[in-house]
Please model this.
Amino acid sequence: LAEHILPRRHVVDGQEMVVLFDQGTGAVVTLEPPTWDVLAAADGTRDVEGIRLAARRAGAVTGVTQIAELLRQLHEMGFVAGPTTRRGPPRIVIERTTPAERPIEALPGFALHCDRSGACCRNYATVLMTSDDVDRARRLLPEHHVGEIRGGRLFLPVAGSEPSELSAPAHRDGACGYLETTGACAIHRVGGLAAKPIGCAVFPVTFVDDGATIRASVKTECACVLDSVGGPLDEPLLDPQWQRAGDLPPLVAVTRLHERLAMSSQTTLPVAEARAFVDAWFRLPCPADVAAAAWAMAEALETRGPDAALRTWSAAPAADARAVTPSFRALHRRASRRARDNAGWRSERDAVRTGIEWIAAAALLLSDDAPVAELLADATGPAATEHFYLYAAAFGYALFDRPLAESLRDRAVRMWLARAMGWLVVEGTEAAHRQPLARVDALLRAYGIGNYLDDLATTRTGSTPSTRPD
Ligand code: SF4
Model:
């Protein structure tokens, strides 16, 4: 399989399947488990008869005609690559260019209180595990199984079909296969926090090196993060021993910023000036309507520059529904397409399926100017939570993944969408319900729905669509 194909083993309502996700197009193909054994044998070193024999040793009985037809179909879909040149033991290297002495600066005024419900283990298509993580999990839980899946079959390569240093464990009804019905992580329960996969142990903290410090912030994709806003500052966000870059465990990724950050579609600033802008911004008081302020600030950044943007933050006019509604329409197109795909194979118990359906329903509601105007006129959002939502993203430079003005419009849309989700009643667990903004953030990023921004840009300019995944 090509590297842009992500294979994942799932148990859905008790039935095992392998799901192939195409990162480039968003296409999804579901396979019977023996078909995966055939693909795993098609590693470029065998002819079709060799694949048949290798698959048979793995327990999959099929014929050369069927194998040739399977490969032809996947090739037509762009799922198959030629043989790669990579041979030898797989390994990963996280190259850290940050000097070991660079200080770590944690998001101020915030302590995380995790409810241990495991809600964040139900959100993502991929749980990354290194080979050490896999060895540890198998040693601690030798009998662990997901449905009938056990042993080495619990893990698939994170991308393509060749064995790799990074693996993804099987899922049960959309949740990580190590999540227990109590909401506990089985690996954590048996081996303690240090035994968890490194990505899970660090989640939801992010590290970004801006040249002066490493800013440690949080992803606002978890209800507990937003629930913790304004709570007691009794727990440090980071391990107290993590004071400098050199103190971080080797596999913790530190993102390095470009030298200049885009403030708008036309302007950039050196990182130090962008940092000063963020710091000045969050010394200002919280506005009454954070979403409206973010939307207006984006407009000011595009047309009048950073100083005017800061003035606008404190005195934002109401947004015009006609300018906002196209964003909800574009978002609805992406979310409803994903919801349709999910209904074809995900369980009704799957939190990804129910969450995306919730988002699609709210976006559909907001596809007309009248309900959008009603939403914008009601400026009673959860201001402290939404203010923190922007602050955490700005402090950790997540708002600079795109030009800041575009990110601010996107964040305003997400805040409005989450408010509208509160109008709708859906089935679900408590954690999934109580912070719709966290659901929006997690699912828009993890399932490509956030790239509705590219569709909007394409509509505006008539240019070729971006190649970002669906
Ligand atoms: S390995 Fe544990 S912490 Fe990580 S996603 Fe799975 S259940 Fe959650």
Remarks:
- Residues 321-343 form the longest helix (23 residues).
- Confidence is low (pLDDT under 50) at residues 464-470.
- Residues 121, 127, 176, 178-179, 185, 187-188, 196-197, 200 surround iron/sulfur cluster (CB under 6 Å).
- The CA atoms of residues 98 and 209 lie 7 Å apart.
